[in-house]
Amino acid sequence: MTNDLENDHRSLPVVLRPVADELLSSWLVRHAAYYGVTGPFFAKWLRLGTPNLSTLDHRLGLEQVARLSEKLRCDPVTLIAMTFVGATSQSAELICRGRVPQMCRACADRHAREGASGAVPRHWRKAWRVTCPACGAALSDTNERPNTRETLRETSPFGGLWREALAGEAIIERFLRGDCSFELSPFALMRALLVQTWRPFGANGCNPVIGWALGTLIPEFDELARPIKRRINHAAVASLPISFRPALLAGLSRAIADPAVLNAIRDETILRGRRAFERLREQARIDAHAAAKSHPT
Ligand SMILES: [Zn+2]
User: How far is the CA of 262 from the centre of ligand 1 (A)?
Assistant: First the structure.
């Protein structure tokens, strides 16, 4: 099949149909596999200037767009829509890099039946999704539970908060679509909810233990997060283990539905945590205001 790639002045003889919402790197990797070459070899043949196809999902130059649209007979707008290049800086922070953290097993089975085995849609990298926008199924954790067919709804210790988690997911999608009714940006609020604090512990209440702002709303969060405290970081929401995501989305939906709960959270968040929480709460207000101005009704 490599003969097909020898004449580099032509378009590819066969261009594979992308699956719904497919990531550009996934589509390119499937082409490389189809022509029996490695990803870096394919990138070199395309003269993309990088051997790493996954970088194109986040940064795509005009020359690269021109090369790809010529070789894959695809219009530039469609190509750019297969990446995260147009993401706002806030939502870009919630795009998971590295290994794909989640998948829709129903869609993966369908891709395999349709000859697109291994295809990765964009939403499998979005750190605010718990369901698949293509078929509505709950997503599955591919990092901690790679071999189970169970979904996050069954494997997350916060599966009982599913209904509220769905509300949180819908809030973020509405905000991204330009809904101007928000007083607080859900992105900054998610960060605020992951701010670290201290909680009194023990019979005399004097021994402090680590906690998080979200633990005021969902006390089990503190308990379950303590053993993995290094992985809970308000500056890196995308790295929150996916099994904790339903709790964060549920907390977000409560804070958006009733912003007064943020006062209770602030009162129970102490020391440096309180300052960080207040700063992010103010940021949420400023960001929502700015978003409303950029999407006038
Ligand atoms: Zn699906």
Answer: 34
